[in-house]
Design brief:
Length: 106
């Protein structure tokens, strides 16, 4: 995509900047679109028009009971509900935060 065409996506620059910061040193390209391979496949695990799917973002703060180390983590849970019961739960969390707290490292 020629760089002039990126201007139509200017409202998404905050998103692009976060992604580019997270991928710094790992991908080639000056703009988000420059980093995407021509045969890239994007999979979106949620469907906002499906009222059965709820997306929760939350934090937990506490201490590991066995050693008293602090534990802080952020989660995103994608929950599917059918007949008013949870039928599927997918969690995304900071695994390094959990590992570090359990092993007493920071």
């Amino acid at each position: 995509m020629p760089k002039g065409e990126y201007e139509i996506f200017e409202a998404l620059n905050p998103f692009f900047e976060v992604v580019m910061e997270g991928l710094r040193g790992l991908v080639d390209g000056d703009h988000y679109f420059d980093t995407i391979a021509e045969d890239a496949f994007f999979e979106f695990r949620y469907h906002f028009q499906d009222s059965r799917v709820v997306i929760l973002e939350y934090e937990v703060h506490g201490k590991i009971l066995s050693g008293g180390a602090p534990y802080d983590n952020i989660f995103i849970s994608v929950i599917t509900i059918k007949n008013r019961k949870i039928v599927h739960w997918r969690d995304y969390m900071d695994s390094l935060a959990a590992w570090s707290a359990l092993n007493g490292s920071s």
